[in-house]
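During the reporting period the student researcher (J.K.) took over the structure-prediction task from the postdoctoral fellow and processed the backlog of single-chain submissions. One of the processed entries is reproduced below for the supervisory committee.
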Amino acid sequence: MKKIAFVLEIILMLFCFVSCRHAKTYNLLNPIDKIDSISIVTVSFNEDSDIVQTEVKKIEDIRSFLNELSNIDCYTFYGDPRGLTNEGEEDTVIKICYKNGEYEMINWSGQANYTIKRGFRFYAGYSIFDEDQFELLLSKYL
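J.K. obtained the following structure tokens:
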């Protein structure tokens, strides 16, 4: 009987930890009142593997956009930080610029950011958004 109880406890613990994530609200790099602009940008890489950002669309109604972004299912990823894209692959992401010169780029699968203290970090994200909801938001504004 003790053996069965022990096995059931192990199975329950594994079930709880298998997904390695939990639901949350995305935390911006800086407070909302410090936002200067939000854009949808295409991220690509040049022949030297440097990141190239091309603005596709500037978001006019920042508050409305942030409200819609906050309604997308978001999870914390427990593991190494996720990059903005798979390295070398082009993708369309959200770029939030702040009044102090810092910025962050958000993709459904990871984030990158630039801070004055740390410089640019391609692997900065522990947040994963629902891919379909995230892509729907981008397509709505394009």
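The committee noted the following: The chain has a mean pLDDT of 86.
J.K. will present the remaining backlog at the next meeting.
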